[in-house]
Amino acid sequence: MATTAQLFEEPFDADEYIERLAWRTPGGGSKGGAEAFDPKRLLEEFENHIEELKQLDEKIQRRVEKLEHQCHREAKEFAHKVQDLQRSNQVAFQHFQELDEHISYVATKVCHLGDQLEGVNTPRQRAVEAQRLMTYFNEFLDGDLRSDVFNNPDKIKEAADIIQKLHLIAQELPFDRFADVKAKIASKYHDLERQLIQEFTAAQRRGEIGRMREVAAVLLHFKGYAHCVDVYIKQCQEGAYLRNDVFEDTAVLCQRVNKQVGEVFSSPETVMAKLIQNIFENKLQAHVREKLDETRHSDVEQYLKNLYDLYSRTTALATKLTEFNLGSDKHTFLSKLIKSIFSSYLESYIDMERDYLRTRGAMILQRYYDSKNHQKRTIGTGSIQELKERIRQRTNLPLGPMIDTHGETFLSPELVVNLLQETRHAFERCNRLSDPSDLPKNAFSIFLLLVDHLCVDHIDYALEIGLSAIPSSDAKNANLYFLDVVQQANSIFHLFDKQFNDQLMPLISSSPKLAECLQKKKEVIEQMEVKLDTGIDRTINCMVGQMKHILATEQKKTDFRPEDENNVMIQYTTACSKVCAYVSRQVEHVRKSMDGKNVDTVLTELGVRFHRLIHEHLQQYSYSSMGGMLAICDVAEYRRRAKDFRVPLVLQLFDTLHALCNLLVVAPDNLKQVCSGEQLTNLDRNLLHAFVQLRVDYRSARLGRHFS
Description:
Blueprint: H1 2-6, H2 14-24, H3 39-142, H4 148-151, H5 156-172, H6 175-206, H7 209-219, H8 225-236, H9 246-264, H10 268-293, H11 300-321, H12 330-347, H13 349-371, H14 383-395, H15 413-433, H16 439-469, H17 482-508, H18 513-554, H19 574-593, H20 597-618, H21 625-643, H22 648-661, H23 671-675, H24 685-692
Helix pairs in contact: 5-6, 6-7, 6-8, 9-10, 9-11, 10-11, 10-12, 11-12, 13-15, 13-16, 15-16, 15-17, 16-17, 16-18, 17-18, 17-19, 18-19, 18-20, 19-21, 20-22, 21-22
């Protein structure tokens, strides 16, 4: 049986169990072993083992039944116990209710008895107190204060309580009969009040918080309690302002006093509020007045800086003070204190800000033009100027005398930085010092001054000067500086736009002034773009005029009809070489001066006009066979320069022109085939015919018949 039990090991596996049983039986292994396999012996072993398992099962079953019986018996016993406990608990609960009712009854009796005793004792106490006060009153009436309480300094607290009550009683007495005694009581009242304040002051100097608390509690019922608080506030500030930083000293003082007032006074929030009010109305107001009044009329820039700094530091101090208990509405309380200090300065702030910016901007501009020895021209306004502008836009003609600027753009990054820096400070001051309802309006007025100084007086003026300095299209060796003006104007306007978004937008984003600002900015951009477009267009005309001048002076008729057809050693003509060099310089100049899509736009326009010029120029000559080859070489070089434009349209135009030049050299019999080629098939037949007519053999070879 023990052997059988050993086979039931966890985890139990029936197959494993049978295998192990067979393995332990001699001759029963499935793989054989020392003995041969014996099925009968294995069967016998299995039958015996089955019997053992039956016996083991019966034994375990009997044990289970015994344990179940024992469990049922113990469950019944436990249930009886629980019932007994419940009955006991019910009895105890009833006893508790009876005891509670009895206690309530006794408590009611005691309260009733206490009320009766109080009803008897209170009048008695009042009578005793009245008798005691009458005794003291008689002493004042007789004029002889014999009681120890009035003569012993150690009993000043008790004396104060008595005299305070006598003072209240004396006020109810008729003056004609008790004038003398009322005066004596009042004199003693004030004398004790003075002594208590002196005692409080002395205790404060000694740092005796407990004594200060006792005296303050006594003085609470006296009229001089407010004076006691004033004395405390005054003494707190003694030696507190030794440094030059009144704001930091105030924060440290309030932090220290805040811990103390809670231990001394019964209403610390009132005392703390009074201390802060005293500091604001005396120390801070005097400090602010001293700092601002000395610069208000002598140095407006320093005045505005001081105003911004003082107001910022005062509001920061007020924010720190909100952590203290100052009553129910401490934010309104502190705001009123700040307003009382700065209201007279804030009312005139924006006017002074505008006057300063107007003066400062004009000075920065004038200082720059003086450094250039430039007398600023007066740009016309009104209907005449508008008429000139319209004529210039439509005809692209220079109006007025041309100005030689000697390469000066009259745009200064340093000047722009100074103007933007001043405006940034102005926006910061405006945001801090303006009333929230006036903030958008004030910020807009500052923005208008920036527009006047930066956009009108500087950028627009430089554009006008730049336009006046652009030479006519037939000028020789003209220096084109307008693209430099464009480059600097774009850079400056990016800075202007950045300040618009970073500084101005947060101040006006939620107000109706936003639409006005955006409209004003749009007008400024449009005005500058018109002048930039006009200047760029006239500059391109000058470039084309310069190229035309090079071609006119350098290109010779014999270039394309050489005397010796067999002795042409050049790859392309001198005129072509100089034009290509000039074009490369101008393309590079445009790339440096423009940004974004403007580069492609300008280069497209320049490339188209460049192509038109070369196209028209080639049609002025007649070409021999070798001259035609040289013309193709020239156009190939022009096309190589056209690649620098990086504009597909320009390259396509020169590809077509190159294909047209092939008509100058192709064999007469192949003309029709070439004209039907991919690049020429869509062109006007008259244009093709015009190019063929440029050949010197046009008439002799009867080439016109191919276009009839």
